[in-house]
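Recall the central idea of this unit: under ordinary conditions, the amino acid sequence of a chain determines the structure it adopts. In this exercise we apply that idea directly, starting from the sequence alone.
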Amino acid sequence: MAGKSNKGKNKKVSQNVTSQSEPLIPTDAPVNDELSLSEVPKSEANGNVTESEPVDLKADVTKSDNANPEVQAKQVLVGDVHLFPVSVKSQGGEKLELQLSPGDSVMDVRQFLLDAPETCYFTCYDLLLNTKDASVHQLEDYNEISEVADITTGDCSLEMVAALYDDRSIRAHVNRTRDLLSLSTLHSSLSTSLALQHETGKNTASNSDPSKIEVPELDNMGFMDDVAGSLTSLLSSPSKEIKSIETIVFSSLNPPPSYRRLVGDLIYLDVVTLEGNTYCITGTTKMFYVNSSTGNILDPKPSKSASESATLVGLLQKISSKFKKAFREILERKASAHPFENVQSLLPPNTWLGMYPLPEHKRDASRSENAITLSFGNELIGMQRDWNEELQSCREFPNSTPQERILRDRALYKVSSDFVDAAISGATGVISRCIPPINPTDPECFHMYVHNNIFFSFAVDADLEQSLKKRGDSNLNTATTNNASESSSKPSSASATVSNGDKPDVSNAVDLSNATDIASNGVAETQLAESEQATYTSANNDLKGTRAYQEADVPGLYNLAMAIIDFRGHRVVAQSVLPGILQGDKSDSLLYGSVDNGKKICWNEDFHLKVVEAAKRLHLKEHTVCDGSGNDFKLAAPVECKGIVGSDGRHYLLDLMRVTPRDANYTGQGSRFCILRPELISAYCQAETAERSISQKQVKEEPSEASASTELEHIPEKQVELEADKVTLTSQLQDKSHEAKHEAVQACDSAIEANQEISKDLYFNPNVFTDFKLSGNEEEIAADEENVRKASSYLRDVVLPKFIQDLCTLEVSPMDGQTLTDAFHAHGINIRYIGKVTEGTKHLPHLLDLCSNEIVVRSSKHIVKDLLRETEDHDVAPAVSHFFNCLFGNCQALALKGASGSPHSRSQKKENTSHQASGKSNKGRTRWRSTGSIKKKQSSYLSMTSDSLWLDIVEFAKLKYQFELPVDARSRAKKISVIRNFCQKVGITVAAHKYDLNTATPFQTSDILNLQPVIKHSIPVCSEAKELVETGKLQLAEGMLSEAYALFSEAFTILQQVTGPMHREVANCCRYLAMVLYHAGDMAGAIMQQHKELIINERCLGLDHPDTAHSYGNMALFYHGLNQTELALRHMHRALLLLSLSSGADHPDVAATFINVAMMYQDIGKMNTALRYLQEALKKNERLLGEDHIQTAVCYHALAIAFNCMGAFKLSHQHEKKTYDILLKQLGEDDSRTRDSQNWMKTFKMRELQLNAQKQKGQALDAASAKKAIDILKAHPDLIQAFQAAAAAGGSGSSGGPPNKSINAAMAGEVNTLPRGGRGVDERAVRAAAEVRKKAAARGLFVRPLGVPVQALPPLTQLLNIINSGVTPDAAAVNNSETEIINDSNGHDISSEEKKDESQVAPVGLGAGLASLDGKKTKAKAKTAG
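Accordingly, the structure predicted from this sequence is:
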């Protein structure tokens, strides 16, 4: 029982917490979707945010769900769960109350009790349920409460009754106690600390006058120029431990002697308290007590003090007063943190930076005990888990109802996550040679391992295996050690039988006798060198194929669990064990596919039908293939796949390296695994379908669209009336809305069916352009080849140019290597095309840097893998540091003596690269040939120099990516962002201190802190939640806030139950929920959701991931919306730091963030600081994007508004003229943004004229206020010089302005005036945002006028009031359209206007806000994964 406490704990924690704030949404939304979703404000007609609106929104959700029976059914299951109070009596006699649902399992209740401070240290107990009729039920862990009793009747109570300990549960109890006494599991977010500091400072300082708030400048932007020095700022010091006890260790008196076992002794503990007292504690089946042992001899009698307790914590509280006090402090510290900060992440990201100076490594007996046993993922007590049976059983769960699908997804996610975790531990043991192989007489590269019911093998190309076998023994069974002779990347768990089911013993293994001779043979060497790149590629393809068939989810067709682990230069493939494969089952288990390069093909009708069903979902064509004997077989999968029936009777499909067709653009030698991505196949099919659909149904669509629009036109009129009467939407209106939605869904379904009909012939033959012999008529084969050529041409001629264009227009704006890779894959582009993308974007410096550095990093990764693979354990840190010095410094060989004979010699290098696409040397293959001499292994890295390494990199890039690195690539790579990218790809951790990359050897051996495995896996995602999010995004884009809110809420609730809170999809949900709540007027709720997204991103993606940086940027803009500018600027500082680490200072997103920072300073009246940031943003955009880019126009417009706020209308007009010229050139004069810029020019001119008119009439300005504005410019002559060039192009004019406009209101202008700065910024986003406003207004959802001012300094306010007196009607007309929009770094347009009373609110998301989230016992909760 005790052991159950640690498993599902974290999922439940967050559920309690997040249930009361509105649900979160999972999505893989592209950047532009974020932009178009951001402009859907809802408010009262007067522009003030109403506090009742969020409530109305929730009411609308409830009504809309009730109106639709299908939605209502889902809601009962996963939405608003009905909760009932149940009191709990703990073992210690305390009473607490839980809010439970009849659907909660007993394990869920245990999770609640583990989270409650009163019961967190109880682990071994039974739960009794006392009902109203006085009956008592004992609850079994895996039952739901509703199966035992009905708690809806009330008067139910739970009682925790102490259960007996056993050997396993008492050890788990001790481990749980140790965990409770440590704060290492508390992961505090910097955002939490910032807000707490701000709240503390606010309580101690008077802030009644906003002008007296001291807002720090962001280190005067100096940190952006010293990225290397900012490494120390990324990592915050770990939570300071609260010491409660000196030591708790298992006593050397263990195990108890037999005569003591017979009376219940299970364990002995030695404890030293803070008071310095030493105790020997006996743990029995019933309790813990202090025995009388004092020396080396056991005295089991209880001590005179007779201290005993059912729990270890209870006993320690009795014998140590200092422990009792410290334990209370620990619980208070954990309770004060955000609940998400206590939740553990299942697969946390590798960290590339380690603490520096190194933390002291202190004695810790508990830690050493845990590390003594090298289990490598094994359970120390109990049976090993049967991963395959667990996984396949979960797939067989029923999934006909929403609740069944949630339970199925939840089980699959949990088992898959546990498998990956165990695979990582096992692979580490395999690579460390701590786990023996099952075929030790085979060559080392062909060793296979079985550990913890997981099959491990090295990724080795099968062509090499074939060569070895042919040279060794021609009579060996070819199926014994390889998966597929043409395409296998690894021995699989099926490799032991496949064709004849022979057991993989030594007799059937590869003959090792000639291995050394073979390795020295020229042909084998060539094949070995040629195949290494294919080795890694084919393993990746197999994983992608496995994932594709899992998502196809065809009943009766199964796949093995799979993970790829890269560690120490080796790639290990981990799979669940195929049933019967290790038992030597002699039955003919291969039913489908081939194991010998198509010479013999097996076929089974039942298996074929299942494969055909999956092929339809994967766009694969059923086709005919001829085997070596001339027999024809109909297949719907790659020839080399293997359909095997396991001993459990299930049909398994393995070796799925080519579930998409070959890339016709790459058909040369060494490109056999160059296949198209599944995303491209989907995009191509959609494009073809759309093209055919337009030509066939264009006439039919027009009348249906007209009728649909007529139907919807009547709804907004009634909504407007209801809003005017301040009444929520009626159920009748909701019925009409749902009728309209239902019709739209039906129309959509019919359209999908029609598209499916049209695209029925869009299937691809995966075996074209291969060596396999296709059967059938020539026309059909030619048509299949042409089909694949068309898809490949679509990639080359359509997708690639569009992607390059999107990069140049910032529609897609990757920040680092990972986001660049994600962008490639999302568009269906393979990374091998990065050379072509680099060529197309080399006119933009930031894109040239990003792409060329990614090529350098990827090339270096393959070289360093060879280095790591041949380096002995004691040389790893010196080898890595030397490699870093060669890559980033100017390092010469450390040992020139061995250079000539080294595998690194240039002649050998060139000879090898002439035979391979990867351009890699044979240096890493020493392991595969033979043990090799230590001298050679040492010289392999000692003889490396900077020049030789960079020659290898350039050569690799040319051969692999068809790209000639620029001559200055070496100097371009001397950046922290490149080091970060490289470390993340290889799994290296370096010390977080300042590195001088201009020296010859910037790295020392002591700077290399760790090597970690890098993981690729196929953990499933929740498709249902994903679909809900996508639908919600469409509803939000249409201005349907209530419907979007309902969909997002439901998606979040589902995800919470499936994955728990620590998941990337949940973070996306939080972002979208924050967006919806903000637009609904609930700023407090929006900040709370955004804070959750930030915490999850930090934990699941990494502290310095670009998404984490944008989360900080969003938090800053939300805080600024509440007039908490100081807190907002601190978040902006963190966002800029993270952006500088991931992309460097030279990136358009950094410039966009500068604009946001400038607007914040404007709003608090610090115009000089604001102008500095705007100037820097302008410089960056002109240098990175060019003087005629739209983002440069954004900077000019922002400067024009800033000068307008200072009364410098002439400069405003000049800069707006620059804006207008750029927009005119890029967009044309008919574009709305060009016209808006022209209107701004007129506005500034009118204000200038008005000012002149006032002077002529003798109306003098306030001299002091005017002088204030002029002094700002005089104090910074660099600004005047910087804008002299812009001033030369200007005109003049003046006009008055309204007295109530804030500075940032003027800066932002009309909603659709200009595209705003930020990630993924483009003009289309603003158009979409404006369209959303129109649609929302058309439905009666009043769009908030965003012109209420934020506090400004009195001198500038006075200046504006004087200038703006006597405003003309024309000027007023223009200014009435002004809005105050701040564009965040993700491209979200965020309003900074709020009600005056909200400006006094304490930081939202912390303090009272977060404290309210901690109502685990009394707040509503959603059901989570156990």
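Residues 678-724 form the longest helix (47 residues).
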